[in-house]
Every structure is written in structure tokens, then in C-alpha cells.
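Hi C.,

You asked whether I'd gotten around to modeling the 621-residue construct. I have! Everything is below, sequence then structure, no commentary in between.
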Amino acid sequence: MAPALADALAPAAVPADAPALAPAPALAQVRDAGSSLGPSARQGDPETGTEAGTEADGGAGAEAGTAVCPEAGTAADTAVGPEAGTAARAAAGTAARPAARTAAGPEAGTALRRELRAAAAASFVLLESRGALPLEPGALNRLAVIGVHADAPRVQGGGSSGVFPHRVVSPLDGLRQALPPHVRIGYEPGPAPEGAGGPEPLGARHARDPEGGAPGVRLRVLDAAGAVLRSLHQPSGRVLEPELPPGAHTVELSAVLHPDTTGPWTLGLGGFGALRLTVDGTALVEGEFPPETDDPAVVHVRPPQHTARIPLTAGRPVRVVARRELAPGTGRATVLTAAAPAAGPAEALAAAVAAARAADAAVVVVGTTEGAESEGFDRETLRLPAPQDQLVAEIASANPRTIVVVNSGGPVELPWRAAVGAVLLTWFPGQEAGHALADVLLGRAEPGGRLPTTWPATLTDAPVRTTHPTNGRLAYEEGLHIGHRAWLRPGAARPAYWFGHGLGYTTWEFERIGMPEPAPGGDFEIPVTLRNTGARSGREIVQLHLSRPDSAVERPVCWLAGWAAAEAEPGERATAYVRIPARALQHWSPGGRGWTTEPGRFEVLAGRSAGDLPLRAAIEV
């Protein structure tokens, strides 16, 4: 999420007990790149009975990892929280999959989680809306939730940008917790995207700590003789070892795995060095696995997985133990993973289409993978990893009320965008992803983000294509016409979505623009009046661009100068006062080696995106 427009986009209703956010960075820090012209500000958070993380189907979403540090040894099981301990003790010893529980975590239900949830919702960008949103729970009997990303979302960037939240709420779990009991939710993953990672770290959904039964796994650090130096509960099978007790020789992760599906499960152990993975005492993975790269992100954070398949039966738990010997040069990561049996691509696609056809509405969550969008390499295409475009197209044919949620960190091609009921961009929304998504889909929060990038219909439409160095030299031939400015030049293709684009749950009419006399060399404000022409209250982001067609120096066609938020009830008018910094009028003077203002007439254009600027006025400087 981009925090730069918190002041402009902050929602009208903020809970009285919610903590304030840090002020927004200056306008000059905003660039035509990143994730969202949306705020880090909060929207009102409608508390539900499951705010503390109650799971409707036994899972709180993908659990992340934690680090082994000296302080962690004092926490032991108490870090899980009393609610989880109570539920775990009730479930301990049963052969069936554990029932619904309250999610663990000291932050559960706190103002911090509410703020994360609201900030995520306020960063979402509604790209398309044809009456499919918001969903009305009372009008729903059956909802289809489709896509691998619905159950295992990408909530942060890849590589060294990754951190390990205590827990992640998936879109599937967020909707399960938010919708009333009469709404039947059918989940189908559909075919796995190309480049999707292997099994996910084993966590609270399927695993229980063998010492006490709490959701998650047991971490033990052993010396060379096998004596226990440290033992503590972990919510996830992903563990880093930045600091270890003296004499540490082996890291051990163990769990009681509760299969919920009968068939061949894939279990894995990620790491380098001497590895051993057993299920009920039988070795599945065993051997020496030396590092094949010196990439620190691989060696220390996301090592390759060594996997094996084993038939398991739903309701029959098994004990899984993973060990990795600690040796110099073998990295710091140990990852215990598991994946349930998956259908083949054709079968998975058919099941997803059938679920959509039988539902009142379908929510399809698609996105990039770490193999397609991460650090350390350039993207070769803007297309979603296959076969997600096919999945969306077939779901849209089966159900006209198809809502597509795009889980990516940057622009992607959306060839089916005109055939679906809505397209909602969530970026990488953080650990409260599922709760935030449910809030927006159900209309409890309005999507408040605006695009900080221009999205092409296809990569071939991009006006700047010479991005590869020649003989070690990269020429910036576009000059000043970078980002959204290049799309405004004559002859450029029309993009799918303009810089600054973003819809809400009401409609607006831009009525008039006032033109005060700017103070010489100083900042000034321009008032813009608009009217809420929709049926519910809302917010609009007024964006002002400047233009100087008769300039004596080279300039972009127009450029963003400022923005502000307006909010109003249905039928009411509001005036946004947009501050224009003096710097926005200036250009670089090579002769004077500084920024200077060219006297004369500037045009001011007001609207909701770089491609939708209905109001015009002029100022003299």
C-alpha cells in the first residue's frame, strides 16, 4: 500500500478509539510507480463477533514464520494467547480435524489490527464496477470463492522485502467470517497458476503442536547429543535462526498433521545441509543438500523444498518431524511444508466453473506469483500467470455476477475486464487482507485507492519500450515524458486505466473550479466543487493537473500538481481545496542551474484521473 495520500484520502468516519496515523509524505515523494495512490488512513471498522479471529472452517489463513531469538525462549506457549490455548486443549487428542477456534496472537482484536485492516481496505482500487458491488448478504444464498490466491494470498512483496507476520487472514477466511450463516460458501482453487510455489509452510489450518495441542508447530533446538536447549511453540513451519543458544546443533520442527482430504499429500522440508523428514517415524526426505547458490534471499530466507508424497486419510492425524543440522554455509532457514491433494488442471477448472454456475455470485481471486513478480529480476510479461485468464473468462461466462480480485504489486493485463461485474485491485494488502477484502466487498468500507501507475491494455501499447541497455548504456530517450506523461502524448495508445483512476460506491459530477490569484513564488489553493450524484455517501479524490501549451521550454502535455479529498452525502455538494506548491509551476533551467518559473498563462485541469479532467481554468503567473 502507498501511504503518500493519507491526508487527502482519509475517510470521513474514524472510530473514536482508533489511533492516529503518521502524516503523509510530501507531494514530491509521489511517483508514477508503486502500489496505490490510496491512503494509509482508516475507514470505520464494523466490529463483528469474529473480529478476534474466529474461524468458520478451522483456519485463520496462511501462517507465516518467526525467528529463533534469545527472548523467544521465555515466551514458550504463552505467546499463543489464552484463547487459542483453550480451543487447542479442547481439540487435543481427537482424531478428526479440529473444530472452529479463536485465532492466536497477542495482537488479536487490538487497535493495531483494526488499523491494518482499515488501511488495507482504503488502499484497494476499484477498477471496474457494473453493479456487482457491493454485495448484499441478505440477497445471497450461495457464494462461489475461486482461485488459489483466495486461500493463499500474496500479502507482501518477495525476496528481502518479506517479513513474517504472526498470521495472515486469507480472502476465503475473511468472507467466511463476515457473511451470515445462511450464505453457503463454496471454495474451488481452480488450476494452479504457472510458477506457483510448492507446498505452503505448515500452520494452524492443519497442524497442532504435539506438546499441548495448540494450533501450529513445536520448535526445538538441540545440541550435538540431542539434548534440548530450547523448546517453544510456533504458529508456522517457517523458521529463521538469526540467533541461537550456545551449542546449537540441530533445529527440529514437529507437528501433528490433521489431514482434511484423503489422497496423496505432498510434504516438504526446505533448507540446506543435512535434512531428515519423517512421518510417523518413516523417513520421506533424508540426505545432504548443499547450497547451489550464494543468493542470500535463497540461502537465508526461502531455500528450495525437498518434497515427497505420502497417502493420508482425512480424520487420521500423523506426526511429522523435520530436522536440519546447523553447519556453516547452510543458511538460516528451516521450512516444514505440506500440501493437500490437488486435482488436475482440467478437472480443477471444471469444478470451479460448476461452483460459479451454481452460485448467486462468484468472487475470483487471481494474482502474480513470486516467480513472476519479485525482486532480483525484471518482469518479462504483464500477463497473469496462466491459466488464470482462462479461469476468469470461463467463470464470467458461467456467472454474470463475477467479481475479480487482482492480487498483484504492479500492472497486469486484464483481457476479460469488460466481461465481468467488477474488478478490484488489492495490491499486496498485508496480514489483514481477508478482513479488509470482506469489508469492501460487502460495502462496509469504500475502496479508497487510486492508481499511481498507468495500466496498458497490453504490453505492446506501452509508449516507452526501450528499457534494455545497449553495450551497458541505457538511454532515457523519452526525456521528461515518463510514466503517465508518455501516455498523454499524441499518437499514444489509450490505456486500460489511467494514472489516478479509481472508482467508489457512488457517483460524482465535477461542477466548477475557482481560480484565486497565486502569490508570486508561493503556494496557493484552488477550490473545486463537485456533487454526489449517487445513492450513498462517499469520497472522491480531486486531482489537479497543470499544462503550458505555449511554453518556451519542453514540458509534458500535463502533469499532476496536487490533489485533495471531497466527501458528501447523496445529492450534496462539497468543495475540495487543492494546494498547489510553487514547485509544480517550475522547470529546470540548465543555464541558471536551478528551478525557475516561466511567466505567463498556465492551464489548470481538474478531474478524477489523468484521462478524465472535465474542468479547465487558467492562471497567470
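If it helps when you're writing up: Residues 111-123 form the longest helix (13 residues).

Thanks,
B.
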